[in-house]
Amino acid sequence: MKKQLPYFLIAFLVPVLAVLWWWGLFSSAKVEIAERGGYRYAYLDAQGVYSKLGKKRNEVFYELKQQNIEAGAEITLMLTDPRTTPHAELKAQTGFIIDAGATPKAPLKVASVPMREVAVSEIRAHPLFAYGKAYSGLLDYSKQHQTTLHLPTLEIFDDSKLIVEMPIQADASSGVTP
After folding, report:
1. Could you read off the pLDDT of 112-121 as tens digits, one per residue?
2. Of 18, 123, 128, 171, which one is least surrounded by beta carbons within 10 A?
3. How confident is the prediction for the chain on average, in pLDDT?
4. In terms of pTM, does the model score above 0.85?
5. C-alpha dist (Å) from residue 102 to 13, 56, 70, 97, 149
6. Cα 24 from chain centroid (whole Å)
């Protein structure tokens, strides 16, 4: 048994750890205050468990393709807190960033986010790890500043990088305009 341990480590454990490292398991989210915005996006409203937002986002992507509009980064405006809201009542807007000149047609909706000051949590990792780590960073930031997580948060996922923007003040408007 002792002779097989090094082979086990080399053949199984090392490759698994390498994949987990590659996916960002050992990464941490970086949180900073920044001025962000200037986004225009096409979206659909979503209600229910946040883990199913991908299906709604695929509908947006399909509609954009049908209308010959190029889809940019994935974007989601999280309107309710999954820690305090029943799963069936969770609400979000999900879709893709689009060019300023694009004019999507129904059933797609369009909104924009102006430049505003936000707490930004950023991480490069696989989605399995990225969302939890990004929000954990914002929760840590909130505790350090004796406040709470402020909604709505804006998530942008592009090229394995997740950016979550949180309004700095609870009474701050999301700035989103339909």
Report:
1. 999 999 999 9
2. 171
3. 87
4. no
5. 49, 20, 9, 10, 33
6. 15
